[in-house]
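The instructor's notes for this session suggest beginning with a concrete chain rather than abstract definitions. Hand out the sequence below and ask the class to guess, before any prediction is shown, which regions might be ordered.
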Amino acid sequence: MSKISLTINNLKVEAEEGATILEVAQENDIFIPTLCHDPRIKPYGACRVCLVEVEGARAPVPSCATKVAEGMVVQTDSFTLEEIRKTIVELLLANHPLECLTCQNAGNCALQDLAYMYGIEDLRFRGERREYAVEDYNPVIERDHRKCILCGRCVRICDEVVGQRIWGFTNRGYQAIVTTPYERSLFDTKCVFCGQCVSTCPTGALTEKLSKYKGRIWETEQTISICPYCGVGCQIKLHTKNNEVVGVTADINSGVNKGNLCVKGRFGFGFINHPDRLRKPLIRRRGKLVEATWEEALQKVAKSLLKIKDKYGADAVASLSSAKCSNEENYLLQKLIRGVIGTNNIDHCARL
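After discussion, reveal the predicted structure:
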């Protein structure tokens, strides 16, 4: 694509045609605050926190939804802009519960970060507050309408990325909320509980119940890994505390999935520390499963497979491989089944 030249904060930069001001600023390490923006979904321009001044424009414009143009001159940090942003954050906080001490998203909340950045210690705007009961009826997602800032990110990611269209706006003005059709429970909708809405929420309106009270974001050790559930190879970030996995997230800037995960990849980590998880091989002796060494278990499996093959033929044996194994391990399994056992009866869990 053709390149165009523009100036941001007196810095001359180049950008690809069709890029937004926000994208170009981020590429050049120029900070512009956002609340309703997520690179996985289309620009929305609802929160107005990302407003910038463009020379010749009669008013500030949303940088997330304004495309760059040749010769454009942009200012992102003027006194006027900072006052506008601070006022917007103050207005949002005026109808937002200040429960940061117990909020699961404390330390990982964009609204909290902006309040800290602008030094907001007290509320200038006071009035009626919306009161809603916390929705925690399902096992993985908790929703608190009081903390919702109506950025629409959950609505848009469910529509544009997941394709389920579970969330939507209802009512108007002060009474507006994001909810399901006819305010039904998620169990009564097409929700697949992928947690994409949780991953994009900039506040504590949507949180993961499995991670609640198990560790703040800064208390956990974060390890990049690959999701073990299928062959897609989604990159995940394991959050561990006290040698226990307490949550799973994904970086929107890396991996083949770019921050997107399914229900198993995001919430299916309970087996790791489950007390019923097998930690040693078991073999059956006198009708009961007892612990054994790996050598004993492998010998018994080998003898049993050869016995079945000799008695009933190679096609009496079948194998199911797993995406939890590496490509090399799956390759060796199919070589064993085809080359040693002598059958093509092998399948993979990701295909079923």
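Then share the key points. Helices lie at 21-27, 79-93, 110-117, 153-162, 196-200, 263-267, 294-312, 327-341. The longest helix spans residues 294-312.
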